[in-house]
Design brief:
The complex is a heterodimer of chains A (about 325) and B (about 675).
Chain A: H1 2-28, H2 34-39, H3 45-54, H4 61-73, E1 79-80, E2 85-86, H5 87-122, H6 127-141, H7 144-158, H8 172-177, H9 180-209, H10 212-219, H11 224-246, H12 248-262, H13 267-277, H14 280-308
Antiparallel strand pairs in A: 1-2
Helix pairs in contact in A: 1-14, 5-6, 5-9, 5-14, 6-9, 7-9, 7-12, 9-11, 9-12, 10-11, 11-14, 12-13, 13-14
Chain B: E1 4-15, E2 18-30, E3 35-39, H1 46-54, E4 61-70, E5 73-74, H2 80-86, E6 91-94, H3 98-101, H4 108-120, H5 124-137, H6 143-146, H7 156-168, E7 174-178, H8 186-203, E8 206-211, H9 214-220, E9 223-228, E10 231-237, H10 238-243, H11 248-255, H12 296-300, E11 345-360, E12 366-382, E13 386-390, H13 397-404, E14 412-417, E15 420-421, H14 427-434, E16 437-440, H15 454-464, H16 470-483, H17 500-512, E17 518-522, H18 530-547, E18 550-555, H19 558-564, E19 567-572, E20 575-581, H20 582-587, H21 592-600, H22 606-610, H23 642-646, E21 651-653, E22 659-661, H24 674-679
Parallel strand pairs in B: 3-8, 3-9, 6-7, 7-8, 13-18, 13-19, 16-17, 17-18
Antiparallel strand pairs in B: 1-2, 1-4, 4-5, 9-10, 11-12, 11-14, 14-15, 19-20, 20-22, 21-22
Helix pairs in contact in B: 4-5, 4-7, 5-7, 7-8, 15-16, 16-17, 17-18
Classes of the chains: A mainly alpha (about 325), B alpha/beta (about 675).
Chain lengths: ~325, ~675
Amino acid sequence: MIGFIIRRIGQAIIVILGVTLIVFILRHLLPGNIARAILGIRATPFAIAAFNRQNGLNNPLPLQYVTFLNQLIHGNLGYSFKQNMTVDSIVAHDLPNDLVLVGVSLVLALLIAIPLGIVQAVRRNKLTDYTATGIAFVLYSMPAYLLGLLLIAFFAVNLRLLPAEAPQASTIGGVLADPSGLVLPVATLTLVTVALFSRYMRSSAIDSLTQDYIRTARAKGLRQSAILFRHLLRNSLIPVATLVGISIPGILTFGLIIEQLFNFPGVGLAYFNAAVNGDYPVVFGITVLVAVATVLGNLIADVAYAVLDPRVRYD
Amino acid sequence: MSVLEIDGLRTFIKRRNGVVRAVDGVSFAVEPGETVGLVGESGCGKTMTGLSIMRLLPGGGHIAGGSIRFGGMDLAALNESAMRKVRGNEIGIVFQDPMTSLNPTMTIGHQIGEVVREHRGVSKEEAMARAEEVLALVGMPRPAERLGYYPHQLSGGLRQRVMIGIALACDPKLLIADEPTTALDVTIQDQILTLLDDLKERLGMAVLLITHDMGVIAGRTDRVLVMYAGKIVEKAGTGRLFGRTRHPYTAALLASIPRLDQPVTHRLYAIPGLPPDLADPPPGCRFAPRCRFATEECAASEPVLGGPEPDHPYACFHPIGPDSALPATEVVDRHDRAESGADSDLLVLEHTVKEFPVTSGALMRRAVGTVKAVSDVTLTIRRGETLGLVGESGCGKTTIGRMIVALERPTSGRVVFEGQDLGSLSGARLRQVRKDLQLMFQDPYASLDPRMRVGSILREPLQIQGLGSAAEQRERVAGLLREVGLSPRATELYPHEFSGGQRQRIGLARALALSPKLIVADEPVSALDVSIRSQILNLMRRLQAAHGLTYVVISHDLSVIRYLADQVGVMYLGKLVEVGSSADIYERPAHPYTHGLLNTIPVPDPEVERAKHGVAVAGELPSAMDPPSGCRFRTRCPLAQDVCAAEEPVLRAFGGEHKAACHFPLQTPAGGHASEVLVQ
């Protein structure tokens, strides 16, 4: 098991290195050059030459890549000339908010989707199942921003129950101090995620239910709850674990849209604004960060997979 | 008092296209301490009878009538929570496939302990102690250590022992064993059936043994119920059923099995047609459309289970008796070797070795070992003959078949077909040779493309090889279908519209399409029901005679090999341990492994089976990555001595072409004293 995790971490590092290389190349593929992109169209040749010298842009590319990597390893994601602050400080400010939004939504989605999928599988092709499947389909096929807008229209505008905007506090404590503002963004992200997960959980559980070992469990005279919890749950979670891992980039994308919609002060919003303003260092810094998050998510999914399924723990 | 008394049981399954009457008025009883055999082909309702007793019917299934008396209760009418106390506690059940019947994510100790906790309400520790006790009971080596194993860490035979352990953990009064050994190798089947017999004696329980195998029935049961199309058609004590068979279906079933103890000069009896659709069964006797004794009476009214002998009832108006028996089958058209250009070698394997590397590590693949699938095999296949390859799964027989048709290249050694080394060919030359080397597969369901019409499946080889015009190809396809006994209408249909036997005919027609010289048939009949099996075996023999074909038949079933093969090779763990004519192998086996295999095959004759004692081949197949030193069979051989571990035996001649690789052969090698041979 330990060996398996170490090997997977090794693979993850190589993937991340690949991503940094792509980001590095993208930086150099920018129209014109980096200095022009950052200093603007009217920068003097002298200013550009000074910028290049200052940032080591005259060095050979391999050396530049090593420098870039070295900075990344030391937690230096770059410097935003537009905002006149390091990308690190932008991320450090916004990231905790995202962890709350994405983390809470993900946990909620799993807590809802797993039992829901099992209930649907057990009551397959009955009213409960049809209803849940119908709702999941509507949610799944609805763009996240539309769902968010509908929730705002109903709960914030009509009922005036909840605020339409996320808390604007600058610290994580401040965000958590006003949880009512979190409800709608979290609900939107949870609902779209539940729709995805529950459909997989349902089909995985249906598949497990037809397996011979479930018949064996019934032949043992076990109660339905014991059959579902001891025999069905773990086996049907195996394919879902992988799904959760690979859907992390998708969920982050949903998060980006939702942050924009609710004016939620997260990395997604910072990313969006930076892209719109052509603030490339921020875009690249966050891209590396998201890549790391994705690789980490998959790593966790793989480890979860190995914990759930003894057959893949080959050491 | 009977342990189990079933009266007029009817089990229906609702399907989209109607109600399948899977079990239709079945009555029987099981007495304490006896083994009752329930035998029949797939779809006859034997499994549904077992599942009805446990009330574990699949979706859409329900008990529509009748009673199931057990321990003073009617299980058919019991509520779910009361039924739960019966399952696993008073009635245990063992299913066919131990690979899928155990939970892959739970240790076997837990899986056994769970039943004990459920029904005995004991603590976790007590349940584990019981699990260990049960594992010891079912013959698991080192039970305490195995408690923490997951199913995938055990072999098939050991998994089935765990399954039996689960069924027996609460000392049930009745054990239902539903095809408990069908998914296992013959040597393991023998071990498991012997274990079940032994446990029945020791625990004093009753056993309901459900199987399709008349040989298993003959050796392991006290009484037999024969089922056909949802009904019991004959029941009797085992000796009586085999000795004085009355129902034409039972008789036909017995006559259609290739047997080790009968001459192969006659064709197998083939039951015509297919079992009826149970959603719409025919009126009258359900076997009548396939029965050679059927009269108008049989089609008009239904015979009831009865007759003059109270302890041997049968449901038939025209029972088999002294004045009516199955006709002697015609003498088989054995091909004439001299005519088909005999004794010229068609294909020769020369010191063929095939090893597959086993790799580990997802990123940096490194070889951690090699599976020695085939180790130094030399064999000659003569034109117009059939070579049979037998052995347990994992012995390398399929790999040899794939090397013969050039789907696999040997790691070393040569495969020489008509003088050319197949390993040296490539591109167009290899494609040219492929025309002469064809393969017939085991699974008629998986080996035909479900989205291609049969006409296209049969034409494809002709198109690939560019043989003939479109019209000629169509004509050839029609001819092929005629030859394998299918209607020309079949060209327009898809594979799923055919039964298993018909699909296997299509598979054979596809193999024949290019008029090959050699066909490798890998387990050609093991996926088929007994009555269908004989149709295909007869067809294979007829086609061989008509076309002078050469066959390599690969099978774990020694009786099938005996029916088809002229020459037989016995393989064990990648080695050819014995080779010789069919008579050499079956009448004068020299290798202890061959001898053991022959003894493990259940023969459909109670007297032969009862005469057998103990387990013929003990233990399990060692790993092919790290085979035993010296003789690979020594770890399971009753005759093994020190020299067997130290020195690898070479193939020695035993007269004619009979060769075996053993230090202590059961026959005297050629050049030994003639008198010893006579003693043998």
